[in-house]
Structures are given as C-alpha cells and as structure tokens.
Specification:
Shape of chain A: flat
Largest sheet of chain A: 10 strands, parallel
Number of domains of chain A: 3
Radius of gyration of chain A: 28 Å
Number of helices of chain A: 5
CATH topology of the largest domain in chain A: UDP N-Acetylglucosamine Acyltransferase, domain 1
Number of strands of chain A: 39
Strand content of chain A: 25-35%
CATH superfamily of the largest domain in chain A: Hexapeptide repeat proteins
Structural class of chain A: alpha/beta
Helix content of chain A: 10-25%
Oligomer: homotrimer
Chain lengths: 347, 347, 347
C-alpha cells in the first residue's frame, strides 16, 4: 500500500498546506466516504458543504474551508492536482510488470530494448521492435515487423497485426485489436469480391486505445491516429481513417472508412461517423449523433442526423409539440371552412 | 450424449406425465424439427396447432393436447420447465472443465479452492483467490489480488484487472474485460490530462457478463454490478456505474460514467445512457433509446431522446404525417390569403 | 518484399499493357503518393486528372491516358483488377503461418488435416477437426467437437465454443467470439431465470467475421451464417439468427435474436435489428437505422425507425422546417382570429 504525507502531496502538486503537514494517507476516497488515513478531493466549490462534513485526513481543495477539521492542500487547479496524485497512487496500486517471463514466445529476431516487460503467453513476432520500458502484458500478440514505442503499455490480450506501428507512452487496453483487416468489398454479380487490405496502422505518442476497440489497417497506406488522441472502449476505427492529435473519442464510436478528424475533436459517447466525412479542428459532436456530413472547425453538432446544437435542441422540443400542432391544424381547417361558408353580412 | 426418460424429465420439472413414461430422448429440438428421440417444448398455446403435428417423442406442454401422439409432460410453467431441462442438457453437452492444466501460469501466492479448473495458457496473478468449483478457462487472465467466487465461470480469453472482485455463480463470457481503466481526462491547454483511475470493479453473485463486454474500473471507489444482473454481449459499463440487482441489459448497451440503474431495470438492445443519469427500479428502456435524463421507477421510455413510450409512439406516427402537415399549412395560407382579399359583400 | 513486373500484373488481371512491360514494382500506393517502384490504381475516371500527374511506375486504369508517363495496364474493371493484385501483395506482405508450434495445446483426439498451421498458445479441444490448409493463429481457442473448414483463417485471440462449425475459406478476425451463450432469460418473481442455450453456430464457406464480433449460439438449433456473408468489426449476431448468403454487414451492427436476413442483404454501419425481424433478399438498410419491422425484398430503408428511403429523406428535411411551421401556425391562428372578428362590411 502506498503512503504519502500531506507535505509530500503538497509538494507533488505545488499546493499550499493548511494544517499538520505530517499526517499521512494510504488511500484516496470519495468525498463522502473518506475517513482517517484517506485523501479526498474537492474539485469544485459546488460541493463545499459536503467537504465541510468530510472526515478525510487530507483534502485537496481550491480554497481554504472554515469548518473542515483535517489538513488542506489548497490548489488553484484541484483537477490537475488530482490527476498528479492519482498517478502516484496508480503506480503503487497497479505495479508495472517486470522482466520477460519464460512463458512468452519472443521471436529470436525481435528486438526488445532495455527494461521491456513481457507477460505470460505473450507472442512477439519476427522482426518486431519493442521500445525501452514498454510493457507487453500476458496473452498479447504482436505480429511481425511491428514497432512499439518506449514506455507503451499493451494490456492483456491486445492483438497487433503485422507491420503496425505504435508510438511511445501509449496505453492500449485489454483485448483491443490494432491492424485487423479493413472491410473492403466490391459487389460483382451478386457476390462480394474482397479487396485485400495491404496497408497498416500508425499510432502516435501518448495515445490511449480502450478495451475491445478495433483499429483497422488501411487499404494501401496507413490508418493514422495522431499524438495524444484518446479512444475509449468498444470503439471502431475503420480503414484509412486519420484521427487528429488530442482527439477525445468516447465509448461506442463507430468511425467509418476514410474519415478525417482534425485536432482536438471531441466525439461524445455512441457517435457514428459516415465514410469519408471530415470533422474540423476542435469540433464537438454530442452523444448519440450520426455524423453524415462534414463538420466545420469548432462546430458543435448533435442529432440522429447532425445539425448545429441549438437548432437541433429547438427541433427536439418541437417534436414534443407535434401532437398539439396536428390538433391545431385540424381546428384551423374547421374554422377556415366555417369562415368560407359564412354568408356575407352575418357575423 | 445425454439421455433422459420422460419420467426423469417430468420429475425434474414437477410435471404430469401423459403417455409412456419410459420413452427416452437424447436431444432437444425446435417444435417443427423434433422427431424420434427428441424432446420439444410448447411454451404458449399460440403454437398448439404446430404441436399437434409435432413428431417429438416427448413434449413439454402447458395443457394436454388431443392429437399429439407422443408422451406429454404437462406443466403449469413450460418456460420454467424448459429452463430446468435445458440446464441438464447443457451440463451434458458442454461438460465443465476439470483440473488445473500444467500449461497455465498460476502465481504461487494465488489461492485456488477445491475443485477449481484452470485451462491452458490461463494466468492467475499474485494474491488472487479463486472460489471452490470455479472454472477459469483457457487464455483467461486474472490479475493480482482479485477475488473470483465459487462456481463462477470465466470463459476463454476473459481479462480481469488487478484487484477486481467477482461473486459466486457468475458467468463472464469470452473475451469480456473486467476492470479496464475508466475514461477520465481533463482538458488543459488543448491537451488531455489523464486522471488515472485507481478504483476497482465489484460484481455480485449470479451475474452474467456477455462476450466482448467491458466493465471499467472506478476512479476512486468501485464500479458495482449487483447480484443477479445480466448483461449481454458487446456492452460497455463506464467507470463509477452502479448496476442494480437483477437488471437485464441487452446487447450493445453503452452505459456512461457514474450511471445508476436501480433494481430490475430493463435496457432493451442498443441503448445508450448518458453520464450521471439515474434510472429507477423496474424502469424499462425500449430498444435503441438514448437515455439523456433520469428515468422514474417503473417508467417505460423510448426514443432517440427518451419520452414516455405512448407519447413517443404518437410522435413517431406524426412524423410520418409531416409531409401532409406541411402541405396543409401551405393550403391554409393560400385560403387565408383569399379570404383576406375577399371584398365585402361577395361570396 | 514482393516484386512484380508490369507483364506479370497484366497477365494476372487480363489487362492490356501500354508501355514498357519489364518495369517492376514492389509496392502498391495511393495515386497521389505513388512513385518509382510503385503501382497505383485509377478506379474511376473521376480522378483522371490526378492520374495524369501520378508518378507511379505502373498504373491500372480503365482507359489509356494521354499524359501519363509510366506503364499502363488497361482493364475493363480496375476494381476487380485491384482486388486480384492486392491479393498477391497481401500474400507476400502477410505470409501465412506454417507448421504447428510446440507451444500450442492440441488435444490428442483433435484431427488436423494436411498443412494446418497452429500458432503459439492456441488451444484445440477434444474431437475438433481442422481442415487442410487452415491457419489457427496464436492464442485462438477452438473448443471441443468443432469443425473448421479448409483454408479458413482464425486470427489471433479468436474463441470458438464447443460444437461450432465454420466452413472453408473463412476469415474470422482477431478476438472475435463464435458460439458465446445466447441471452435467454425469463422473468419469474422479479428475478431472471436463465434459459441455457444448448444450440450451436453454423458458418458457411467464404464467410468473413470482423474483429471483436460476437455470434451467439442458438437456444436449441443453430445460429446460421450462410456462404459468402461478410461481417465487419464490433458486430453482434444474437441467438437463432439466420444470415443469408452474401450479406454485407458493416461495423457495429446489433442483430437481435431470431432475425432472418435474406440473400445479399446490406446493412450499412451501426444498424440495429429488432428480435424476430425478417429482411428480404437484396434489401438495403442505410447507416444508423433501427429495423423494428420486416423489410421487403429489395426495399431500401432508413431511419431511427425505418421507412422507405425517399420518404425518410423528406421527413428529415421537414424536421429542419419545424420551427418555421410552428411559427406559421401561430401567425395563422392570429390571422384567423382577426378575420373572425372582422365586422361585416369592412375590409
């Protein structure tokens, strides 16, 4: 179990200490559950009242609180402080694997740089190169002629097809698949003629790929995921896509072939993007959307068929008024009829 | 091959025998395909006519049929009888694995209780405990310090991350992932700052998790799936969710972070639930719905943006009448115009 | 690296050579990126101008181009030519595995026909039979009593449950699951009573199953996927489905229980099909659709609740005019009111 003093934590995040500096914590817990020996976070002032009642030994907070009894670490950005502190706890709680187990199958022609860890029943194919400090967990399969960058982690069960390239400091989560064959068929005489996909996948640095996510290889060139992009679980990136740097793609995204996402695009949960669509830098696609057309840089869109967010909201509200509108139409028709029949000279 | 006599089956389900008791069956088949040596089920009277023509040796039926030639097992609840009988056939058809293969990697510090089976190339990490009679199939990876309950089955390729807890009599299907890292990022200066997830997953008893389903671990505490909940294939349960007892979640559900489902909630196929939403006990969400707001206990909702089922149905029907409504509006405008111009004193 | 001369390639596809026949290529590249030593494809005349500027050594083209400097292979169907040529490159780039590794676990009672390859840490269960030339990649698990046809490829991590049958020349991609248990439950006294699924999965010849796709086994009989059907990644085929020959099912399809798809049905990306629905031969379901009702042969449907494509398009266009329609209604009501109040004899 990790153990940190309030002083250590404050130094870690550049925070101001209020209260005893030597109190130590072993655990990070939710505000309402934290007790002695625990650290908690108050990330926004909205929960200030909960924080006052909090029994955590140490609290990271954006401002000094009057009625809180423990030690405070006052930080300008408690979110960022939380990220840094959790990284320290994560390292202690989920220790990195070490060494190369004798139960793995590593090709004699594979190159494993310094400090690479390889788990049980992992396979590393001919000519592949694994960067220094990378962790290839149990039951991972890295095909032939792959490149995996420094300090990248491939979690248990990940499969990387021949020739794929993954950068440094990436995290590819359990059972994800990199480099499966893109879905390319031509219809000829009622049958499907397969177009074999001879391209590859190229993933940049600091990319995260969620569990059970597929990234298909390109037809000829490369399906590309640029530096810093983050993909959640159960997503699909089809052949020939280009995902820009620092994109955030939440769970369940189905991204069609040859789609281009610019820099820092956000796809909220369960979004589908049609083949060949282009989404501009910084665009945001709200949850559940179907992106059937290009999206301009910075545009915020939503809907089964996307529209600008505000417009779509209005339409959805009006859908709820459709029954009333239909009724009004019926009433108007009757009244018009009555008016039309009204003999002149009578009210 | 299993072989059961009509007498054995009738006893198994507490049914009343009509016809020869010693006839035996080796197979269970669909009503229209069953023949000599087969058992069939008539679950509802709706298919009574099919049952009369059925050539099955034995038929489980809610009532005695006049023209059926084989042996009948008359049961008040043929569905429940079917469940019991199929369990017996399943045991014979898919025999449980036995013993601990020498091709697995079991940490010396792991504790395997009596009757645990471990398949080829499975990994069980340091300090993990596997309950009596549990089956850890081939290529499963159970991390460090996990708990797997009695008689729980982890099918081939399942991955369980360090520290996760799975109860008794659970079934986790092939290649499912328990305890992948939740998707937590803060945007800072256009980049994604990772919030490491140091929590865990806690799954109760009699839970079923489908193939290729992900259950992410919590940020600080636990993502919880309570006793008796059933999740289908290709689902995603994000970090910090709480899935209540006896929920039924059909395939393709994408459940956002910190979602709470009450007791016996039903999500039909392909439902998405937004972060932080709460769904009350016994609520039913129809197929394909997007749950963007809380759902009251017992509420039945549907739609891209959910609404009460009846309301949504009316709206969908009216959508089909939109072209007609638009036309009416045009006609009304013209008529109004004509009326407005109508000189006084003329029809 | 493969190397083909223009003459070899022209023979391979029955094309007409224009230019030097002995020039050779080692790589296939995109039209705009190809250079010396590369082959490129001009599939439609739409990109004729790009092709003229193309520096590829060899170009496959539907017609002779005036200003292109390299060797042309003129083909009536450049798409089909591309498919054939890419197959040759794929074979060279992704060489088939050979032999049976000593790191696999093959049951003594399993039958492996001539030329079967088995990768590291693969498992082949009792009584299973693997057809000649099939490739069982690393970490695949084939259960007991399965049949895998000739030249079929099971990519790394695929799991096939006991008793399933896969035909010849199939490709099942990484971590896909064949034969997971169908999702069958009856509600009894607020709890879920499991209906064990004792059926199987039967897959025909030339079928492709995408990475991370699940095909559940049937309750009693077989979930069937007929010859030539192609399924993309992250799809789900529930118990008792029958997928007709030559269907094309794009990524993310969620196909409910007992669904029947006819011959050559196309489901575009992210389609959901409700339990028990029937889709006729040659029907096309557009992307993102929810198929809640039967679809006639040849019908083209679309929408959250499917409708004929043209009708749905009109409705979606009218949705954008809902705000305007609501406004018109308000104006009409006012005008009517004014008309109704208009005293006789005044304009």
């Amino acid at each position: 179990m990790p153990r940190f003093t309030a002083r250590q934590l404050a130094q870690m995040v550049g925070g101001r200490l209020v209260g005893p500096a030597d109190v130590s914590v072993q655990n990070v817990r939710a505000l309402e559950l934290a007790g002695a020996g625990d650290l908690a976070f108050l990330r926004t002032e909205a929960r200030k009242d909960d924080a006052r009642r909090c029994s955590a030994a140490v609290l990271v907070t954006p401002q000094e609180l009057e009625h809180y009894a423990g030690t405070m670490i006052v930080c300008e950005d408690p979110g960022a402080a939380m990220a840094a502190i959790l990284a320290a706890f994560a390292e202690a709680r989920f220790p990195a694997p070490e060494g190369i187990t004798r139960l793995a199958s590593v090709s004699p022609s594979a190159v494993l740089r310094e400090g690479v860890a390889v788990g049980d029943f992992a396979v590393i194919g001919e000519g592949s190169e694994i960067g220094a400090g990378a962790a290839i967990h149990s039951q991972v399969c890295v095909g032939r002629d792959c490149r995996v960058g420094e300090r990248t982690i491939l979690c248990a069960g990940v499969k990387v097809h021949d020739g794929c390239v993954i950068g440094s400091e990436c995290l590819v989560q359990h059972n994800a698949v990199i480099g499966s064959e893109g879905f390319g068929f031509l219809q000829r005489e009622g049958r499907q003629l397969k177009v074999p996909q001879v391209g590859t996948v190229r993933i940049g640095d600091r990319v995260q790929i969620g569990a059970l996510t597929t990234v298909d290889r390109a037809t000829l060139e490369a399906t590309v995921i640029e530096d810093g992009a983050k993909l959640d679980d159960n997503c699909h990136v089809a052949h020939n896509c280009h995902i820009g740097p620092d994109c955030v793609i939440a769970a369940g995204a189905m991204i069609g072939g040859s789609v281009r996402l610019g820099r820092s695009v956000i796809l909220a949960g369960d979004v589908a993007v049609k083949d060949h669509v282009s989404v501009g830098d910084g665009a945001i696609v709200a949850a559940g959307s179907g992106v059937h057309r290009d999206v301009a840089p910075g545009e915020v869109v939503w809907g089964y068929l996307i529209r600008p967010l505000a417009e779509q909201r209005r339409i959805f509200a009006l859908l709820g008024r459709l029954p009333e509108m239909a009724q009004k139409l019926r009433r108007i028709e009757k009244e018009l009829d009555a008016l039309r029949r009204r003999p002149e000279g009578q009210p």
